[in-house]
TrEMBL record, chain A:
<dbReference type="Pfam" id="PF00528">
    <property type="entry name" value="BPD_transp_1"/>
</dbReference>
<dbReference type="GO" id="GO:0055085">
    <property type="term" value="P:transmembrane transport"/>
</dbReference>
<feature type="transmembrane region" description="Helical">
    <location>
        <begin position="122"/>
        <end position="142"/>
    </location>
</feature>
<dbReference type="GO" id="GO:0005886">
    <property type="term" value="C:plasma membrane"/>
</dbReference>
<keyword id="KW-1133">Transmembrane helix</keyword>
<keyword id="KW-0762">Sugar transport</keyword>
<feature type="transmembrane region" description="Helical">
    <location>
        <begin position="277"/>
        <end position="299"/>
    </location>
</feature>
<feature type="transmembrane region" description="Helical">
    <location>
        <begin position="166"/>
        <end position="192"/>
    </location>
</feature>
<protein>
    <submittedName>
        <fullName>Multiple sugar transport system permease protein</fullName>
    </submittedName>
</protein>
UniProtKB/TrEMBL annotation, chain B:
<dbReference type="InterPro" id="IPR027417">
    <property type="entry name" value="P-loop_NTPase"/>
</dbReference>
<comment type="similarity">
    <text>Belongs to the ABC transporter superfamily.</text>
</comment>
<keyword id="KW-0067">ATP-binding</keyword>
<dbReference type="Pfam" id="PF17912">
    <property type="entry name" value="OB_MalK"/>
</dbReference>
<dbReference type="InterPro" id="IPR047641">
    <property type="entry name" value="ABC_transpr_MalK/UgpC-like"/>
</dbReference>
<dbReference type="InterPro" id="IPR012340">
    <property type="entry name" value="NA-bd_OB-fold"/>
</dbReference>
<dbReference type="GO" id="GO:0005524">
    <property type="term" value="F:ATP binding"/>
</dbReference>
<dbReference type="GO" id="GO:0008643">
    <property type="term" value="P:carbohydrate transport"/>
</dbReference>
<dbReference type="InterPro" id="IPR008995">
    <property type="entry name" value="Mo/tungstate-bd_C_term_dom"/>
</dbReference>
Amino acid sequence: MTQGTAVIATGRAGVTRMPRWLTSEHPFPWLAPLAAMLAVFGLYPLIYAFVLSFQQRNRIKRVDEFVGLKNWIQLVNDDRVWNALSVTLTYAFVAIVIELALGLLIALLLDQDRKGYGLMRALMTLPLVVPPAVTGMMFLLLEDGSFGWLSQNLYMTGLLSPEHPILATGSTALMGVLLADIWQWTPFMVLIMMAGLRSLPKEPYEAAAIDGANAFQTFRRLTLPMLSRVMAVAVLIRGVDLFRIFDYIYVMTSGGPGTATESLSAYAGRIFMTGNFPYAATLSLMTMIVVIIIANLFVRLFKVRF
Amino acid sequence: MATVTVRDVVKKYGELKVIHGINLSIAEGSFVVLLGPSGCGKSTLLRMIAGLEPISEGDVLIGDRVVNDVHPKDRNIAMVFQNYALYAHMTVRENMSFALDLRKAPKDEIERKIAWAASILNLEPYLDRYPKQLSGGQRQRVAMGRAIVRNPEVFLFDEPLSNLDAKLRVQMRTEIKELHQRLKTTTIYVTHDQIEAMTMADKIVIMRNGYIEQAGSPLEVYDNPDNLFVAEFIGSPSMNLIEGRVEGGRFVSKGGTAIALPAGCKAGEGQAVVLGIRPEHTHPDPAGALEARVGVVEPTGPETHIYFELDGRDICAVTRERTGVKPGDPIRLRLDADRIHLFDQASGKAIR
Ligand SMILES: Nc1ncnc2c1ncn2[C@@H]1O[C@H](COP(=O)(O)OP(=O)(O)OP(=O)(O)O)[C@@H](O)[C@H]1O
Ligand SMILES: [Mg+2]
């Protein structure tokens, strides 16, 4: 009995002796684990890449040497970087526009409480659980020049000729890769748009009906503006993601033909494979800077609030 | 302008019946008030007329046209919603011009109408604000503005003044009435405020639990209530009601107080009845037949409400005189015999 009391007493004493910033009342202990993870997996690589971007491997001494802005200057003068930037921007822009439009359209169609729509909504999310590499393989097979189901159908309609297979032709290869992206990521947009539609108040719709708005006017003047916040957030999330596009390209075209589908990440990956880590790091940093700038412009322009 | 006819209309939510076969005809250009306690189905009926709720049974006609399956946008009505239903992403000005924009009205006409509505509703300083930057009363006025800039065949108002302060409410009441006299647009106005109903209506429709209890002009329903519910619901302070039975051509209350009945009274001998008399027809009078003791005295200025107890019921008398009575004083009362109402105790129906 006395022993028990003693243990409790020391326990209490132990608690009071702990510095305040280590107690549960202080945010520090709660934030520390995540902060540590971020530091190890986010901050450290970032700083490492930053340092690396000012160095170059000396092949004779086999050490990294400080070379100042050399990598950065090389980057700016590298045509392949500019090509990759333009491929990435094109890819991201086309993907976002199509996925957003399709996503909104499908969400509007599925946002009804009719029989069977619940199942359709569930089925709609299936592409999201397929690994991107598998999606890439799937579309690679679909678009294969000789036996791809999609290619053959396109040959039959005359839109494409067998001499110019989708993925092996510079002008169509990017579109071929985009198909995989659109198939996989439109459901993501559908989900967000559906959640947005569900959260809209219904009273303004009644008022608009009485004010004489038809379906199209209601969509354009109520739904679109009321949904714009949600759309902006979706575009931002998807846009940042699209800027790092690598997997479909790697699986389907490896950036080819030539450099027709080589995105920034794909080019960085290629450089990395050749062992030029400092230059790859520089390119990755540049990608990050471009993303930050564009995302910030977007947030300002569309007054996105989280 | 158009008539509105409601024919045997029933509203069911699943198994739950909230409107039980209502019949109502509203004359062209008239101002009809739907009055009733909370939850009696006023909004539901109004929303069915607007086309926002499907009609379970019966017909609604605007003019000669059955509009059961007509979309609200094609009914040419304007409505003020109980919860405002403003467009949150539009300014006050855009909220009010929305309907006109949709109809591609000329710009100067839109400008003029908005300026006019804003001045009536004291909204001029707020035209470029968003609804979330307004108070409840201001939002309600925007909702009003959105309706009055239109030129509809029927106005539907769902408690449009409930969130305004007393002064503004009286002012808006007059504005709406004036607007109606000028435009002569058929108006259906929902409220649970009987003063609003009495002052504004050409016709009051009193509802309870999905039924119409009585419909008629304000003075008709005030002077000749069809049943106990209407008698008690209309008038403030409300009608005095005393339970008892008819004995030898007189009314005898449970406590034994006898009150002479007017000549030609149709109540049967021995019938259990409720006697009703309005406070303004109950007078303190030294020569009166009834004797009571004063409970509470409430001076309101122009008149004084004197409460006293009769057979265990609180009875009120209204007088314009300065009687100087105090709580506890004995008092004699006189009832205006020709203003006595009798109701059957079992059914609550008026005996006339
Ligand atoms: N969607 C619904 N499902 C089931 N019952 C409903 C629904 N909407 C309304 N009701 C019921 O219908 C009845 C009438 O409602 P209504 O809104 O018409 O009342 P009201 O007379 O306008 O009351 P208030 O003065 O409080 O606005 C209420 O008893 C309410 O509970
Ligand atoms: Mg209501």
